[in-house]
């Protein structure tokens, strides 16, 4: 019982410690308080190992190994989530004929219209480095004065199309053009090779799935970095 209590205290302290370590980054926009605190590979692996040891009480070495791998898998994304409204609905409708057409449809049907969605790696093109932003650019319109639930789902696959990371961010937003970014840091245990990033957005039941964006992990001077994207 004492060990269990000690473990919970350790986990709570670790979450507080690492939760305070994030900075604002260089992606533009503002960090979203509701979506902050995403765990990185370091904290994910440490907490995973602790949990693994607690789960497998008969063989703590095996439990720690399993937990560590699980935690590291959860650590594919690290850092803040950023959101910015590039253009509000009034600006969008006034300057974009396609948005104006969708806006008229939204008013007529009294429901939102999701116009466009793109997945990007930020910055683009990606320079060699270990941190990059998983960006989603999307545009939607709503009936006047309406705010709607928005769900963003980001996924990372390996070359064999195995799902390595899946994360959902939820918010309530008014119509407009948005760019949101989730910081991505290459985990030390990742393998070299090709990977793929996709994002799906759901605006009050209107869904779109982006095309995939390819990036390559390679080891340069002993450091695993993102070196390309298509």
Q: How would you explain this protein's 3D organization?
A:
This protein starts with a helix and ends with a strand. Residues 1-25 and 33-74 have low confidence and may be disordered. It folds into two domains: 2-29 and 36-74, no CATH class; 79-229, Sandwich (Immunoglobulin-like). By secondary structure, it is α+β, with helices and mostly antiparallel strands. The chain has five helices and eleven strands.
The CATH architecture of the largest domain comes to Sandwich
In terms of per-residue confidence, which ranges show pLDDT below 50 for 5 or more consecutive residues? Answer: 1-25, 33-74
Question: How many structural domains does the protein architecture include?
Answer: 2
The CATH class of the largest domain, by name, is Mainly Beta
Query: Strand-residue fraction?
Result: 35-45%
Distance between the termini: 52 Å
Helix content: 25-40%
Main sheet attributes: strand count, strand direction, barrel closure = 6 strands, antiparallel
Count all strands and give the number: 11
Please outline the helices and strands.
Elements: H1 2-19, E1 30-31, H2 41-55, H3 60-74, E2 77-88, H4 89-95, H5 97-109, E3 113-122, E4 131-141, E5 147-158, E6 163-174, E7 176-185, E8 193-203, E9 206-209, E10 213-220, E11 223-229
Helix pairs in contact: 1-2, 2-3, 4-5
Note the main attributes of this structure.
alpha+beta, 30% helix, six-stranded antiparallel sheet, 11 strands, 2 domains, five-stranded antiparallel sheet, Immunoglobulin-like
């Amino acid at each position: 019982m004492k060990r269990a209590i000690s473990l919970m205290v350790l986990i709570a302290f670790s979450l507080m410690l690492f939760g305070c370590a994030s900075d604002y980054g260089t992606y533009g926009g503002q960090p979203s308080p509701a979506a902050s605190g995403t765990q990185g590979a370091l904290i994910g692996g440490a907490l995973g190992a602790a949990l693994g040891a607690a789960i497998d009480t008969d063989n703590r070495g095996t439990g720690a190994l399993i937990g560590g791998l699980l935690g590291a898998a959860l650590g594919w994304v690290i850092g803040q989530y950023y959101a910015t409204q590039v253009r509000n609905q009034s600006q969008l409708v006034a300057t974009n004929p396609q948005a104006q057409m969708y806006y008229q449809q939204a008013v007529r049907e009294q429901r939102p219209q999701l116009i466009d969605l793109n997945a990007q790696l930020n910055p683009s093109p990606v320079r060699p480095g270990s941190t990059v932003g998983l960006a989603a650019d999307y545009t939607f319109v709503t009936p006047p004065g309406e705010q709607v639930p928005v769900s963003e789902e980001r996924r990372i696959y390996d070359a064999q199309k195995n799902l390595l990371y899946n994360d959902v961010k939820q918010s309530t937003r008014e119509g407009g053009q948005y760019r949101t970014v989730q910081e991505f840091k290459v985990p030390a245990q990742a393998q070299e090779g090709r990977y793929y990033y996709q994002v799906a957005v759901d605006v009050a039941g209107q869904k779109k799935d982006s095309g995939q964006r390819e990036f390559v992990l390679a080891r340069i001077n002993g450091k695993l970095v993102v070196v390309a994207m298509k």
